[in-house]
Amino acid sequence: MTDDYIKKDEGIHIALIPDGNRRYAEKLGKPPWYGHMVGAKRIEEFIDWCEKYENIKIVSIFALSTENLKRDKKELEHLWNIYKHQFHKMAHSEKLKERKVRVNILGTEDVWRSDVHQAAKDVMKLTAQYSRKVLNILLSYGSQFEIVDAVRKMIEKGINKTKIIKNILEEYLLVSHPVDLIIRTGDQQRLSNFLLYQSAYAEIYFSKTLWPEFTEKEFNKIMEWYFEQKRKFGR
What is the pLDDT of residues 60-111, one digit of tens each? Predict the structure, then answer.
């Protein structure tokens, strides 16, 4: 488990799908990685915005899907470079240290570039002691694979398939906590295989704004909208 030290009824779990980096770059006549670089800076700001809400305890960000690995090789190399740079920054971030934020970088690790893998290990090791808040970075991640892999691990552990129940399954997922709010930018209305199990009763907000143009003002409006929702959890 990645976040079992935070009680499941304690605080808000926000999941972010930051879509629109490439379209932003195209709009400016720039190469795709320009949009990714601006988007990475916006992620840093987003984390700061979330920090202003004490009741936001977990933030999960969709950094790279398994499907994204099919992109142009040159674009992927730039993406890996951005991830390595960002993980290095996190490892030495005084903000994360002061805020006691634990960073989890989760996904299909065997496809990560070796230097990115090392940078991810470093930041996780350096923040493992913290428990006030959690930042999950989902890298080369797909929810369907996560669920299938969790069941496979349970069977390998000798858990009888007739005893595969909700609580046990959640212990083997990369992210164990249910999502309360999903924000997707870029005017696309789909979840794209992101935290499907965890988002069973999540509120979902689709923003028309391209991710690099997303602002704190819009985020605050979304949070106001979220707090106005009457969550029924299927009841």
Answer: 999 999 888 888 899 999 999 999 999 999 999 999 999 999 999 999 999 9
Output the pLDDT for position 189. 96
Catalytic machinery residues:
19, 68
Spans of all domains in the chain: 14-228
**What CATH architecture does domain 14-228 belong to?**
3-Layer(aba) Sandwich (3.40)
Query: Residue 4 gets which letter from DSSP?
Result: T
Listed residue (233, 176, 228) closest to 205, CA to CA:
228
Q: Tell me if 34 sits within 8 A of 28, measured CB to CB.
A: yes
In the chain, pLDDT over 90 holds for what percent of residues?
Answer: 80
E strands, the chain, in order:
12-17, 56-65, 101-106, 133-141, 181-184, 203-206
Name the residue among 27, 123, 46, 133 with its Cα closest to residue 83.
Answer: 123
Sign of CA dihedral 62, 63, 66, 68: positive
pLDDT at 155 over 90: no
Closest CA to 75 of 32, 29, 37: 32
Looking at the predicted structure, is the pLDDT value of residue 4 above 60? no
Residues paired with residue 29 on neighbouring β-strands, in sequence order: none
